[in-house]
Structures are given as C-alpha cells and as structure tokens.
Amino acid sequence: MTPGLDLLAVLTLPGVERSARHARGFLRDTLVPAHVRPGDAVLDDMALVVGEFAANGVRHTASGRGGKISIALWAGAGVLRAEVADDGAGGARPRMRDGADGEAGRGLHIVAALAARWGHRPDGDRTVVWAEFPHS
Q1: Which helix (H) or strand (E) holds 107?
Q2: Measured at the alpha carbon of residue 45, what is the angle toward residues 73 and 17, in degrees to the nearest 5?
Q3: Which label site among 19, 56, 64, 89 has the fewest CB atoms less than 10 Å from its CB?
C-alpha cells in the first residue's frame, strides 16, 4: 500500500457480470466532483481499469460462483488508487498473458498502459488487485 492515502469509500457487490458496470458508476460517483473534474482523462482511465478488475474477479474467481467483489477507492497527495478484492481463485493470482493479440487476454496489458503502477496481493483466500493513477 502506498503510504499517506485516505480511504474515500468501499462498495461490495455480488459476483455477477453487471457488477462491473456498477463498479464504474461507483468510481465516478465517488470521485466527481470532490476529487476529479467531469471529463478528466484520469476518470475514464480509472473507470476502465476498475471495470476490468471487477469483470476479471467475477469471471475467474469464486466471486463469480455465488461470491462477491469489493471496490475501495483511495486518495493521497498526487495519487488516486482503486482496489478490487475478489473471493480468490484457489491460490492463482492475476497474470499478464504473453502475446495478447486475440479477443481475450488483453485486459491487464491495458491496465499496465493506463495506470502508473498496478499489482495484486493476497488477502487470506481473497485477492486484491490495485492500480494507482497520478492526479494533481
């Protein structure tokens, strides 16, 4: 975790496909207007990343089999951070696929291109994926 971040809000959603859309809406509702101006590019980048993390959590972990995902938003001096926690995948962790030229497997490459930093950490059986974005 990056030191000096304040927790802005947390939302827990069911592990269903439509939760990715709700996660993006939660991000926008939380960050605008107190932290980000409408139309700011970082808002679109963060929404895309949070949607990707949420969809992956539902698609590839126990969250999508009757579980849940949680979205946490953080802010600090010059940085915004989004985290998505899922119910875990039996110890498997997110990884970027080599040669993601097809329809699937490009999501984490997009995350890496948009975020200043991203990663994941275990939280018991759960996995937390996170991304940070510079912001003034």
Answers
A1: helix 107-114
A2: 70
A3: 89
